[in-house]
What we know:
The strands form three sheets. Strands 1-6-7-8-12-11-10-9-2 form a nine-stranded mixed sheet, sandwiched between helices. Strands 3-13-5-4 form a four-stranded mixed sheet. A two-stranded antiparallel sheet has the order 14-15. The protein has helices at 50-53, 120-133, 191-202; strands spanning 2-8, 30-32, 56-57, 68-69, 73-75, 82-88, 94-101, 104-112, 137-143, 146-156, 162-174, 177-184, 205-206, 228-229, 235-236. The longest helix is centred in the middle third of the chain and has 14 residues, at 120-133. By secondary structure, the protein is mostly beta strands. A hairpin with a 3-residue loop joins strand 4 and strand 5. It is 12% helix and 33% strand. The chain has one domain. The protein is globular and about 50 Å long.
Amino acid sequence: MAFGFGKKKKNDTAGAAAPAGHAPGDAGTESAENGLLSLPPDPSDTVYERGVHGPLDADEISDTDGYVDLGALLVTPREGLALRLEVEESTSRVIAVTLDLNGSSLQLQAFAAPRSEELWRDIREQIGLSVGSQGGEIEILDGTFGKEVLAKVPAQAADGSRGYRVARFIGVDGPRWFLRGVLGGDAAVNPDAAKELEDLFRGVVVVRGETPLPPRDLLVLRLPRDAATGPDGTVAGDHAVPAQGGEPFRRGPEITAIG
C-alpha cells in the first residue's frame, strides 16, 4: 500500500460533492432535476444490514490487528492499494482518506451523529442542493448499500470539450456515527469496477470514541502511528506495500471539493 498527502483548500462537509471522472449516459430509478430533492421517509434506507455486512463499529470487533490505523477509521490493506490522506490547507488537519485502486478511488469521511437519528437521508438532499447550485444534477439510485447518489457536474475535458464530472456517493449510518464514501473514476459508473472498493468500504471499522461532538462534525483522522513523513509530503510505514505499476511511496493526485 502506498501512502501520500493531498491538499484541500476548503473544509469538506457531510453533504459536499467531490468530482471524479466523466459521466456516461443517464441511468437510475429516481431522478432530481437541478439537484432539488423531496425525500419522504423511505423504508429502503434500513434494508441494508450494516451490523452483518459492515462497515462495523470498533465495539463490534474483537481484534484490530491487520488494519491500517487512521484514528477514526481502520482500513484493511490490500495489494496495489494507494492511500492518500487529504489535508485541509488552512488548519493542516487530516479531513479525509482516499483509497486508490485500479484506476478508481474511494474517499472516506466519518462524522459524528446523534444516538437516535440517522443522517444519510438529509445528507442526500444536501448533496442534491449543492450539485444543483453548480448547474449539475443528481440521480437517487438503489445501490449496494441502499439509497445512494450519482452526482454529475458540468466540466471541461483536457481537449476543451464539454462533459460532466461524476461522483457516486454512498453512506451508512452507524451507532453515533455516519460514514460517507465517494466513488470516483470507473467505479462511479461501472459496477464491476466498483466491487473491490465497495468491499473495502464494507471492511472499514469506525472508531467513534466517547468524546461528545456536535452532529456532523468530522471524526478525527491522523497518520498511522508507525508512518514517517518525508520532505516531499509522502508518508511511508510498516503497512506500505509497493503499488502495482508505480513507485511504492508516490504522492496521489489531488481531489478538490466542488462547492
